[in-house]
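Bench log, entry 3. Co-assembly request; chain sequences pasted below exactly as received.
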Amino acid sequence: MAKQNKGNPKDVTVKALFLGPKSENREYFKNTLNFLMDEHMHWRRDFHPEDREIFSIDEVRSKNYQKTLDRTSEVLSQLSAKLKATSMPWFSARYLGHMNSDTLMVANLAYMAAMLYNPNNVAYEASTATTPMEIEAGKDLATMLGFNPKTSWGHITTDGTIANYEGLWMARNLKSFPLAVKKVKPSLVKGMSDWQLLNMPVQKVLGLVGKAKKAGCFDAVRSETVRGTGVGKGTLGVVLVPQSKHYSWVKAADVLGIGNKNFIEVQVDGHFRMDISVLKKTIDAHIAKKIPIIAVVGVVGTTEEGAIDRIAEIAKLRAAYEKKGISFYFHVDAAYGGYSRALFLDEKSRFLEYNVLKKRLFSDKVFVGNHSYPSREIYESYKAIPQADSITIDPHKMGYVPYAAGGIAIKDRRILDLISYFAAYVFEEGKDSPTLLGSYIMEGSKAGATAAGVWAAHRTVPLNITGYGEIIGRSIEAAQMFTRELEATKSLKAKGKEFLVQPLVWTPDFNIICMAFNEKGNANLEKMNALNSKLYAESSYVSGPVYKNDWVTSNTELSKEDYGDAPKDFVKRLGIPEKEWKRVGKVRVLRVCMLNPFISNFQHHDVLWKGFLEILRKKLEGAISD
Amino acid sequence: MAKQNKGNPKDVTVKALFLGPKSENREYFKNTLNFLMDEHMHWRRDFHPEDREIFSIDEVRSKNYQKTLDRTSEVLSQLSAKLKATSMPWFSARYLGHMNSDTLMVANLAYMAAMLYNPNNVAYEASTATTPMEIEAGKDLATMLGFNPKTSWGHITTDGTIANYEGLWMARNLKSFPLAVKKVKPSLVKGMSDWQLLNMPVQKVLGLVGKAKKAGCFDAVRSETVRGTGVGKGTLGVVLVPQSKHYSWVKAADVLGIGNKNFIEVQVDGHFRMDISVLKKTIDAHIAKKIPIIAVVGVVGTTEEGAIDRIAEIAKLRAAYEKKGISFYFHVDAAYGGYSRALFLDEKSRFLEYNVLKKRLFSDKVFVGNHSYPSREIYESYKAIPQADSITIDPHKMGYVPYAAGGIAIKDRRILDLISYFAAYVFEEGKDSPTLLGSYIMEGSKAGATAAGVWAAHRTVPLNITGYGEIIGRSIEAAQMFTRELEATKSLKAKGKEFLVQPLVWTPDFNIICMAFNEKGNANLEKMNALNSKLYAESSYVSGPVYKNDWVTSNTELSKEDYGDAPKDFVKRLGIPEKEWKRVGKVRVLRVCMLNPFISNFQHHDVLWKGFLEILRKKLEGAISD
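Structure output for the full assembly:
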């Protein structure tokens, strides 16, 4: 432990990693880009120097040649104008809307460099440079999430949605494996009932895969899993997700043939985390009806509230059920929050002890101030993440790389045999770079440039408290500060009226704050919702191109249909009576994602905050003057 | 028709569209890139000029700041070195392997420009500039494929695999709709048997969707389709694909819960096109067993052979079956060949008459020589493409844009209601730009930069015979020339031995040539396969980094298991007796994709060809000397 401060946390200066809100690093960016382009162009020229140029000078000087270049320039000018006219100023502290911010220079430059070589990671032959980078980046993710890099596996997907599909795909095929064994080679599961086979723990199923291979019947068994036979309506059971899940899970149940009716949403608590007691009741109720559980999904960083499900509790629950002969697959959707596990890791990727972490957050200057974050509960949730069987994690969210870069990490790579094609035994030869990545992932052709971008980001920014931990820690601190400042503010005055303001939760789990305003004394929820809708319109593209806007945010609606009574207390804090919540059943909130790593650390944060309150006040004036 | 030559086909000079094998257009590329980067950087600076710079000069000059920049540079240098060491020289005429070539400058530049704005096309709010570009690009694709732009729909996917999934997802959900109507509102399908409901033509099902909406029971019906209930094993029937299909279809049957057993591969003929008489027999056999057909898939440009399925015949077959009360969904997988439909279109996107087309191919200088291409059969296949219900088409293949950019076009956008979430009635308000694209496509977050790249390419290169048609026409001509030259060559001598060479087919449907060598007199297929495997190794990354290699190609194996006896005649032409084919059952071929648009048009093509033959001869020497 003495060595913890060895890797100087200041090796990486956050400000030097981004182009910056005023393009502060523009010279560096342009020079480096120029260098990379030159590298590529010389690479082309140096390939078989004996080959002639195919463009004659006459051709290049011809009118039509120039016309084509002019046409190209014209289209690109038009594109640039369109981009400038309406794009979102993610880079600015004035943008606090969706989960976006400036992205890492190194990731952008790496993408641009690799793009000219146009590798396709579907097959090694088409991506000899970038397939190994994807494998390395996948290993980085798996390691950061706490998996054993030797037995786990990770790769880049186009987005979190596809990663979620892939997780459920594995869970689904795995669930049907033991019954398929019974059909093809019953001796391997002798004495086990169908119910037992449907409740076999993941590791045991994977053991059975090995047994089937040894017995030479693996291919035959696999073709009797749902991948061969198709899904039988409801025969595999149900998938349990928290109400706060991303909507891609609803699509996943449809796409994978499981059906939305077998997709059960579990009530969240007042902190918008899955209620563990309700989860338990839901499992019990299904078990009582002899309906198996295909999978339970926990969310680390819900996209609307930034909530962190109690991963440790879910893992404990599964362990307890396994003692009773019940088991299921466990997937963590950390598309949003995944990278924030870096905050909890030391320079050797070891999960920091709670007290050490608390100290380092301050001594390493991740946090400027002292905060209660993280609570023990949050800490335990992060610690327990590797108890999941697979985890969605998106580099294009908290990895600060450009779209499109999602990702998935899988605890035990043996599970790939259940979704792979061609190569039945993917990793048995111990090869590191697969020859045909496309044969055991959901997608096919994929940009090697994405892998280059993620790989270069990981090589530049350590995946621990000194790198990503610091960047993301700052965004978390900004959310903590924002909430405290909101608490101190209580209300704002505009045009002689007083408006209460309340955050959705008092201690944000991550870096999203939801909040709403209400005119003091107003007890009508519809009126309050209208006010916040107007505030959102004033602070978004809805009121016109945002380039001149003082502040840009996003919004969301929390309804009784989606969340039960979870938002009830929040609404009450704003002076809305409970019966009004029951009548209207939905509340509109401003959703403020604070990914920008420069806010908490800003030299004159107090000035920034005061300026911000004044902007909010003006927005209120605008909203009530319509 | 008199106006056909109005739009001067020389408006676009092919050579001015690409960076070029010797980086011939490097100055243009770099200057334009610089301009686009400046545009973005000034855009940042001009956003609220009153905001201070957040980086102080002191900070920028600090040691740690410079250290971070150095670290970034170091990683990027390493990346560049890795890319140069092993990447594939797609740009060169020496690369004739996978379906890759140089990509359009405009697409690369547009991607790079848009990437800094980092739009996410999952939601309009996060991509105010690039979601409309995706909609436009989708419309371009639908129009080029012959769909009515007013009623059709198209969008960009990450790749053809996902587009294929999406097509099958729609087909599957659609198939289950009529039975769901019967369950919820039987009066709407009064008097119809289950069999009739499972054989309702696509347009009628979509009519039924409208009726269900009118009756106010659409949501209830939809939740009784497979999306709500899950797929029932085999209850929806089977999917028919040609043996030559891409392997993503096998994955699709698994992912979508249909099951590989319900996925039937139809024998291809000697030209590697789906055998229509076998297709008919296969349909009849299933119908006789009362097993419905979910979908038939035709391929325009098989990835191994470049074969074009007889789309017109498939469409005719469906029409004939519909008269007998049998129907199914029809998807065309034109991931590879889709853009080549541009060759058949005039400046107003009208499908050219056969004789006019033949004339223009020569008079517009698309072709340098006179070729039999296209045959009537091929012509009719392209013409019939819009008879499909949905079509996969990949911009990152024959659209000459960088990865990852797949796409799908859908004939009747009403079908989206069967896969959409949140917005039940997607297009009813006639809005052009959806607010949440992610709610009715398979994916979620997606790079707006991809849309910008494809959009800019389409704006620069016309999607007709004067633009993409000319580029792709050249690649097709190169394949024709290659085949004729191979025919004239017949055999090559190396180290005193004579080696026969044969193309897989005598008239390539598109721009892929497969070929194999055999030592004259050798009747052993295994020996022949070993020779071609060695030739491949000599001409690929297998024998080391390809940068010094004279020629780079790809290879594939055609087996009896996958193709039945389709390769038999080819093998016989090389002097291998039929019984040997029966014994060994697989043949290794070199797979030569000729996407490079500079080969046919090369000033001294005869010199190029002679040089190439000499390279091949040396490869043969290398292969037999091991």
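The first helix of chain A runs from residue 26 to 46. Confidence is low (pLDDT under 50) at residues 1-9 of chain A.
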